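Final report, Chapter 2: Outcomes

The project's central promise was a pipeline that accepts a single protein chain and returns its three-dimensional structure in a standardized token representation, suitable for archiving and comparison. That pipeline is now operational. To close this chapter, we reproduce one record exactly as it appears in the project archive, with the input sequence first and the structure output second.
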Amino acid sequence: MEEVAMEPGRKKGYFTFRTTAILLVVSAAFDLLSITAEEPLFGEIRSGISVGLYHLVYAVLFTALGIGLWRARKWGYTLVFVTAALYTLDKLQFVMNQQVMENFLRQHMSGYESALQAQGIDSMMLMQAMALTSIVVVFCWWGFAAYTYWRRDYFSADGG
């Protein structure tokens, strides 16, 4: 396969990192919009200040990462791995606690039980889907981290 010439002055990864930066800032905005939404944290479904801080941390992290990727800063490169690690820990604590997953599912599917059962979908199937989705997204984060490592020459101390 033949390599396509890029515009002069653009490093490989430019489009990918710029697009990711935009999507991360959009994700941060959605995190702020759902700042009061309950989340499974540390073995319980939490609400209030603790969950507000949780959403705020992710919003700040995603915004900073978006800026770091957009400007091609070395700290943005490092933040990719920090974010992937934090996200991994967050999802592991969710997936490893079956009781929290059951409570979270029960809370979000309340009122839809009969419709789901009519389709042959039970709570165990939904829990497996939630766990698998969480694991796949973690793998996606680490895939992006691997791509970032592969394209590490895109980043510089001054962003240039």
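Archive annotation: Residues 14-154 form one domain.
This record, like all others produced under the grant, will remain available to the consortium after the project formally closes.
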